Amino acid sequence: MTILNAVHVTEYPMQLERILHSQGFGARKLCRILVRSNRVTVNGLPCDDPFAEFATDGLHFSVDGETWPYQPQVYLMLHKPAGFECSTRPTHHPGVLSLLPAPIRERGVQSIGRLDEDTTGLLLFSDDGQFIHRMSSPKWKVPKIYQATTKHAVDQRQIDLLLQGVLLNDETEPIAALGCSALSEHVLQLTLGEGKYHQVKRMVAAAGNRVEALKRTAIGNLLLPDDLAPGQWRWLDAAAREQLLPAAD
Length: 249
Ligand code: URA
Fold this sequence. Notes:
Layout: E1 14-15, H1 16-22, H2 28-36, E2 40-42, E3 45-46, E4 53-54, E5 60-63, E6 66-69, E7 75-80, H3 102-106, E8 110-111, E9 119-126, H4 129-136, E10 144-150, H5 156-164, E11 179-184, E12 187-192, H6 199-206, E13 211-219, E14 222-223, E15 233-235, H7 238-242
Parallel strand pairs: 9-13
Antiparallel strand pairs: 1-4, 2-3, 2-5, 5-6, 7-9, 7-15, 8-9, 10-12, 10-13, 11-12, 13-14
Helix pairs in contact: 1-2
Bound molecules: uracil (URA).
């Protein structure tokens, strides 16, 4: 059993205004007004009583016609497009948080690790501090798979160097890729256990090539789905979260 397995507790019924507040729809007073203004349905039925109580397990609600599943905590994946910064205070480009709906941003989600502004691919978000810590901790070395399009043709010497380990500036020990192979003449697939600053770009440069485009395609056993377009996001259910930490048992 991993610490990611949800602890099953009996779900107590919750008042509707508290439910909406917990899901990022603003202060309780505001949520009360939303409900009293007939803008909310619960499990498909209109409800104008902010103090009506509902079991939250499996609950769906809608606000102004948009349906949401009740989520005790936020776990989601985004297909990050190029041109967005992972910083919470972006400077030169819009931030990745702007790609998420306001109620999710309101819940204080953070990206788990960062991708460069020009890197695309799988990026996770959560508001669960323990989960974020577990996913980011160097102790667990959660493998991340990248596809790097390179300026020069990939050769076996570069692959061998990346697998043996290259010494990066500011590091005292060489860092080795957990896996490395050529997918085509100009595309390298690299699996890394760490998440150091510009790590793929620096490692590939140290091996004598140059990254021209970079995409993260997997974290642990969780693949970026083919049908998740750049800029789209999706909730991560418990089974998807289990796939993130394959070696954690
Ligand atoms: N390595 C990089 O160089 N950039 C990223 O965005 C992620 C890993």
